[in-house]
Amino acid sequence: MLKVGDKLPAGTLNEYIEVEGNGCSLGPNSFDVTKETAGKTVAIFALPGAFTPTCSAQHVPGYVQAADALKAAGVDEIWCLSVNDAFVMGAWGRDQGTAGKVRMMADGSGTFTQATGLTLDLVARGMGLRSQRYSMLVVDGVVKTLNVEAPGKFEVSDAQTMLRQAAA
Q: Which superkingdom heads the taxonomic lineage of this protein's source (predicted)?
């Protein structure tokens, strides 16, 4: 399992782009995790699924509301990561008002999530293999803090915990 001090695993995540520009076309675009985190401080929070209750009511809104404060604390980007496809993550981002605040990063096949060792088996619930709920502060591709939730909990991966860690 990924731990503090580790480099993020190599991999590709996808993001649904609403407006063409900066070399990105409309629709799903692929991004290399290593390149996207190089030289940056990135707050990443992961969750089991788009449009699910806790994720939609608390997790994403908390980061949207704290985006300016996180950026003032030195965070260059905020990523929401989920084992969903880029179309779903794009729709969820529109629903949650994340534009310009939180990048909605899709790990459609769960490959990156599996590489981190932070998977959650929800096969019995009809949701397949998903991501555990966690947050991490990544500096130049290296994990500086990692907050993994206990099953069914939402206590340590919230935006306010990340803000305290980023400001420290």
A: Bacteria
Interior CA angle at 100 toward 148 and 118, to 5°?
20
Active site residue 55: yes
Q: Which of 8, 55, 80, 106 is catalytic?
A: 55
Do the beta carbons of residue 85 and residue 96 sit within 8 Å?
no
Does the pTM of the predicted model rise above 0.85? yes
**Residue 126, pLDDT score:** 73
State pLDDT tens for residues 12-64. Answer: 999 998 876 666 677 899 999 999 999 999 999 999 999 989 999 999 999 99
Locus of tokens 């994340």: 98
Q: Where exactly are the structural domains of the chain?
A: 12-167
Query: Distance between CA 92 and CA 84 in Å, rounded?
Result: 10
CATH architecture of 12-167: 3-Layer(aba) Sandwich (3.40)
